Automatic annotation (TrEMBL):
Protein name: [Ribosomal protein bS18]-alanine N-acetyltransferase
Catalytic function, reaction form: N-terminal L-alanyl-[ribosomal protein bS18] + acetyl-CoA = N-terminal N(alpha)-acetyl-L-alanyl-[ribosomal protein bS18] + CoA + H(+)
Transmembrane annotation, as ranges: none
Gene name, Swiss-Prot/TrEMBL: rimI
EC number(s) on file: 2.3.1.266
Location in the cell: Cytoplasm
Function: Acetylates the N-terminal alanine of ribosomal protein bS18.
Length: 154
């Protein structure tokens, strides 16, 4: 299987929403319109993972602030359950962190999402706080994680 990484397109928004529903059921999965709005913003960048012509993963990061030094926030990462465990999520994180080279990066992750937490820790993220009931629909808590400036994403 060959996975190709590139820019997420507006035509991918419906598939992203479909994957969100599979991955984040019960936690306010993002609808198609949320992805379309994100893709229009100049300070937000998305990467897509595709096999043949099918979108199997996506990741987005936003630049915070208007002046250097910038900080960044990872907005969302998702990989089709049928393709998980094959390094796609790791590659997506690598791709978006390249944009934030030399900057602080933040993210939120469910406290019970052990695979994602382990992935983020492998990139140098550390837990810096707890957000109670961050996921309003389910009431699940989230950790806020932070990665200090690094030149290399891995």
């Amino acid at each position: 299987m060959t996975v190709v990484y590139g820019k997420l397109k507006p035509s991918d928004a419906a598939r992203c929403a479909e994957l969100e529903s599979l991955l984040f059921e019960g936690d306010d999965p993002w609808p198609e319109r949320a992805f379309l709005a994100e893709l229009k913003a100049k300070h937000i960048h998305y990467v897509a993972a595709r096999t043949d012509s099918e979108l199997v993963g996506y990741a987005g990061i936003a630049r915070l602030g208007r002046a250097r030094p910038y900080e960044y926030e990872i907005h969302t990462i998702g990989v089709d359950p049928a393709y998980q465990g094959q390094g796609i999520g790791r590659r997506l994180v690598t791709e978006i962190l390249e944009l934030a080279s030399g900057s602080v990066v933040f993210l939120e992750v469910r406290t019970d999402n052990v695979p994602a937490i382990s992935l983020y820790e492998s990139f140098g993220f550390v837990n810096v706080g707890l957000r109670r009931r961050y996921y309003r629909a389910s009431g699940a808590d989230a950790y806020t994680m932070k990665r200090l400036p690094q030149e290399s994403p891995s």
